[in-house]
Amino acid sequence: MDKMDRMDTLSLWKATAKTFEHGKLLEGNEEADVVIIGAGFTGLSSAYHLHKMGKSVIVLEQETIGYGASGRNGGMVLPGYKPTMQDLAKKYGENEARQLNDLSLNSVELVKNIIDEHQINCDFRKTGHVVAAYKAKHFEEMKHESEYLNKYFGYETSVLDRNQLPQEIDSPVYYGGLVDNTSYSFHPLNYAIGLGEAAKSVGAKIFEHSKALSIEYGRNSVKVVIEKGVVTAKDIIVATDGYSGKLLNELNKGVLPISARIIATEQLPESLLNTVIPNDRMIFDTSNFLYYFRRTPDHRIVFGGGDVRPNLGDAAYQSVYDAMVKIMPKLAERKIDYRWGGFIGVTVDTFPIIGRSKEGAYFATGYSGHGASLSTLFGKLLAQWIVTGNAGGFRFEKERLKTFPFYNQKMMLVNLAHISFKLLDMIG
Length: 428
Prior knowledge:
Helix content: 25-40%
Strand content: 15-25%
Number of strands: 19
CATH architecture of the domain at 23-72 and 189-255 and 348-415: 3-Layer(bba) Sandwich
Number of helices: 12
């Protein structure tokens, strides 16, 4: 993995993050009821809710709070999942799909409540979003999905055809769009920092630059070994998603790390912003490469998506820029101030999972691009599972984390995904 894909480029979020008291390197021996590996949204939410339920917690982060996908995403707090509600209804039944829809809405509300309660300054704004149809057939499917949601879920969305779409985005690429008013934009790293501060305020200990090297399972306890210390606990949560490596066998086999890259433009004239994205909605499309973009409070366009392969260096960011200009030609020649990349975790079914390894480690993973809200909820559900023995009995914990074929050859799998996405986007 080269420097570019180790995420050494500067993100807009890191450049504008609020200052906070960093966690120390863990040295020596520590004990807690629960040890959590990973200080992203899932791990920090778990720590926060566990302490509120009376458990002592230690969080270990190999870098800094929000270093991974939590602090590097596009800043979209969205309802829903990667599969559509019609897809989920076909697979699990309409009642369960309705429950899953309600849970996704609850996850957005949970993020809002935590932000309000702890006065987290993260530019949290109710902007709504548009799903843009990359192909004509996608728009037809979109109309059916909107009708389905409105009729059977009481969930109001609306559709715009190609002639109406300039109300939301000035682009020659798309065939129409679905408008959903329930979503929020935010500064993801500042939310991660604020969530970490909230966890610390109720008693959690967070150690940074404290990479877990191994996990040793005992009869009624677990030990996490880092370079200069050991944490002993009764229970363990591995909240590492796309950064799991081989630390936990189930995650190594069942989670594919997909590269994601984002660019942020220079500050733009408000007149231009009001032309390209008039209503300040967040936008993502239905292409397999999934392009997503939005305005920021400091008058930029943040744009992400494209090639899922790592180790592409500057070419990857050029590809993202080219896609941005193709989608919004009025942004041609505009300077790029920030660029950054990272990994998201994808499961075989592109559906998130709450699970427990055969040794007893709890985990939540596979948000597949919908983690900004779901991960906070899943952290709460993991805490509930440890304290009460029950995470709620939802579909997330009923499904098993499936193993990717040839999981030891992840680079090959990512290359195959890239080729497949490219072909699917090219054909009608």
